[in-house]
Amino acid sequence: RNGLTMAPPFAAPKTAFNDNVTGHRNIAYAQLDLEDIKTVKNHFNVKVNDVVMALVSGVLRRFLLDRGQLPENSLVAMVPVSVHDRSDRPGRNQVSGMFARLETSIEDPAERLMAIAEANAVAKQHSSAIGATLLQDWTQFAAPAVFGVAMRVYASSRLGGARPVHNLVVSNVPGPQLPLYMLGCEVKAMYPLGPIFHGSALNMTVMSLNGKLDVGIVSCPELLPDLWDMADNFGDALQELLDATR
User: Fold this and answer.
1) Domain 26-245: which CATH number of 3.30.450.50, 3.30.460.10, 3.30.559.30, 1.20.58.90
2) Are 132 and 83 in contact (CB under 8 A)?
3) Tens of pLDDT, residues 76-134
4) CA–CA separation, 92 vs 90, rounded Å?
5) What are the residue boundaries of the structural domains of the chain, listed by start?
């Protein structure tokens, strides 16, 4: 009631990638310098995840602006959150999720980053208050067969395109900060690829590896045929934030 909550579901604005998906997939990827991310993080006294979210926000803002499709309201991301230290359920995925505003309506990159950091802090507090096992409890209640029926109804009614639960999934996975090898060859990058589904046809997952930040983007080509344009925007979004530190 006092407004100190995470972004609610079904409040996200509609975009081109909030519609029913087909069986086709396209991918794109980008690589950034982790030291540049930390430079922004330290200057603004925020978390690495806040900078990652600000990068995603800057990328989507430019992508949608270039196409005249930027909504007035902020885009909303669903962010998987580890609850391993707060859940007492052995043998199950220790992951919950929170809704996060990307503040895409804010033009200034520094102001946008600080707004995202503040919104993330509120969302994490709200997510903690809800309880770590809520989503697990729900999935146990809604058996797979029931959930499958619900998704088919969701798709056939086209609710996913008219009123999305959220706009996209954004996930940040800390990786090892040392070289990895396979068959004697150094692994130069690991681009993680996450799932998409009806109503949310865009997934951006980020993984750090040995001083680099690797971004994997997955979508549906019928909805986002120019996915590489989005990937190419990551360098520009990072440069905007670096310029703001000066």
Assistant:
1) 3.30.559.30
2) yes
3) 998 877 655 555 555 555 556 678 889 999 999 999 999 999 887 765 554 444 455 55
4) 6
5) 26-245
